[in-house]
Amino acid sequence: MYYRRKILLALLQTFGGTLSKFDLQKYLFLFNQEKSEPYYEFIPYMYGCYSFQSNQDLSTLTKYKMVEGTEFQWSIVDKTNYINQLKTGDKILLAKLYSKYSNLKGDALIKYVYENYPYYAINSKKAKGLLSNDQYETVLSCKPRTSDYTLFTIGYEGKTVESFTNQLIKQNIKILCDVRKNPLSMKYGFSKNQLKHIVENVGIKYIHIPELGIESNKRQELNSLEAYEKLFADYEENTLPNKIAELKILYELFLQNKRIALTCFEADYHSCHRSRVAKALEALFDKEYTVKHI
After folding, report:
1. What pLDDT does residue 220 have?
2. Angle between the 274-284 and 244-257 helix axes, to the nearest 10 degrees?
3. Domain CATH number, residue 207
4. Is there a single domain that holds both residue 81 and residue 38?
5. Which of 95, 118, 141 is the last residue of a domain?
6. What is the pLDDT of residues 9-35, one digit of tens each?
7. Among residues 93, 118, 141, which one ends one of the domains?
8. Are 129 and 162 members of one domain?
9. Which residues in the chain show pLDDT less than 70?
């Protein structure tokens, strides 16, 4: 079992076996804020800090009959003592978490997190009603405001879907343009429907433009710089010149929204065709803008 799932099970056991879904997310968030290398990352969602990966893990644990879930709560049914299976530091941290926060539940717990971590309340439906005017203004001040014309490219290799989405939010990106031919991923959160659901629920529109992707059979045996150079030379010479319509769609989206991001897998944009798409846009259009690879 993944160690991070033991954290979830131990958290439930520490708090008596059952937690509301809202409370679990907040306690898990506070626990991970104390970790230099957190087990879960979070995004500012409609009710504050939220980890899609933790929710997916809990859903998986229900399939193994270790956890039961209803619309509003999670309960552990496995009788194994998962607290005892944690690293010493995590046991101590979990005990401190219970001692400090177990008296906070529901709106009081949400309010505490919003007051102390205002960025995670920027998309909340409850923040205005729970916070004072000054506190709510602090939340609003955390919303990214940058609005100059910038074309971003971003790869998800080595990232969680939460860290990836936070990068988009903090750059005030309005549209995520997926330029993969086949938008499927073994990594949670990055297949088309998952990614669309996640980013659109934080106010970023998702579009998929498969015509700008590279056929998977052309990506075989990319094990040298020469192989990549050959692939991208072929892409620039034989694919992009026939995709003017799709490039124009991208450019129109860019003109209307000012901040869009092209996404694919590779962390290094030099090793990804998204950089060639960005280059093609620069060559075709004379609008002044910045290209930023993140």
Report:
1. 64
2. 80
3. 3.90.190
4. yes
5. 141
6. 999 999 999 999 999 999 999 999 999
7. 141
8. no
9. 219-223
What residue numbers bound the domain in which 106 lies?
3-141
Q: How crowded is residue 26: how many other Cβ atoms within 10 Å of its Cβ?
A: 28
- pLDDT for the residue numbered 225: 73
Strand intervals (E) in 36-149: 43-45, 48-50, 67-69, 73-76
Does this model's pTM top 0.85? yes
Do residue 112 and residue 15 come from a single domain?
A: yes
At CA 21, angle to CA 171 and CA 52, rounded to 5?
35
Are 33 and 114 members of one domain? yes
Q: Check residue 227 and give its pLDDT.
A: 78
Comparing CA positions, the residue from 3, 68, 63 lying closest to residue 35 is: 3
Cα separation, 80 vs 231, whole angstroms: 52
CA torsion, points 281, 284, 288, 294, in degrees to nearest 10?
10
**For helices 52-63 and 21-33, angle between their N-to-C axes, nearest 10 degrees:** 120
Residues 113 and 213 reside in one and the same domain? no
pLDDT tens track for 193-233: 999 999 999 999 999 999 999 987 776 666 677 878 888 89
Q: Which amino acid is at 251?
A: Y
CA-CA-CA-CA dihedral for 255, 259, 262, 266, to nearest 10: 160
How far is Cα 158 from Cα 162, in angstroms, rounded to an integer? Answer: 12
The strand pairing partners of 73, in sequence order, are 20
